[in-house]
Amino acid sequence: MEGLGINTFAFLSQLVSFIIVLILLRKWALPTVQRMLDRRAAIIREGIENAERAREELKNATARAEQLLAEARREAQEVIANAQRAAEREARRIEEEALARARQIEQQQIEHIRQEAARARADLGRLVVNLSIAAASKVISKSVDSSDNRRLVEEFVNASQATKGQ
């Protein structure tokens, strides 16, 4: 080995030193390093599992949020439909109330017209009687006395009322 420029004693001493360091490292350092690497791997594995769980929880939370939104939309549609039905019922009630009030007013007006017509007929009857008396008194003024005059007018009025009733 001398021909290659290698000192055999130095080489052997370095080889023995290397083997001793290797044995010491293997006995004490390697297990410590291995435990540290195992812990590091466990932490990384746990981080990956946590990330997967978080991703799954996010997926579940998103699905739940979409479900809640769909349910809220459905409930909103139900509320709107109920409000529309209530508005339609109220509109029908108001319309029926207005129609009933209009019929009531119409009946009141018809009754008022009937009363006015009856009053006008009564006034007309009195006017006819007064005119008849005036005409009859001019025609018969001196030949019939007042009791005969009254009897004749009553007969005339009764006869005219009988013809009105037919």
The count of strands amounts to 0
Main beta sheet strand tally, sense and closure? none
Number of domains: 1
Share of helix, binned: over 70%
* Mean of all residue-level pLDDT scores: 85
Oligomer: single chain
* Sequence of secondary-structure elements: HH
Terminal Cα span:
164 Å
Number of helices: 2
Alpha-beta classification: mainly alpha
Enumerate the spans where pLDDT stays under 50 for 5 or more consecutive residues: none
User: Taking Cα atoms only, what radius of gyration do you get, to the nearest Å?
Assistant: 63 Å
Which outline best applies?
rod-shaped
Beta-strand share of residues: under 5%
Organism: Thermogemmatispora tikiterensis
Transmembrane segments: 6-25
Membrane topology: Single-pass membrane protein
Keywords: ATP synthesis, Cell membrane, CF(0), Coiled coil, Hydrogen ion transport, Ion transport, Membrane, Transmembrane, Transmembrane helix, Transport
Give structural notes.
GO terms for molecular function: proton-transporting ATP synthase activity, rotational mechanism; proton-transporting ATPase activity, rotational mechanism. It is a single chain. The chain has 166 residues and is mainly alpha-helical. It has one domain. It contains two helices and no strands. Helix 1 runs antiparallel to helix 2 (146-165). The protein starts with 7 loop residues before the first helix and ends with a helix.
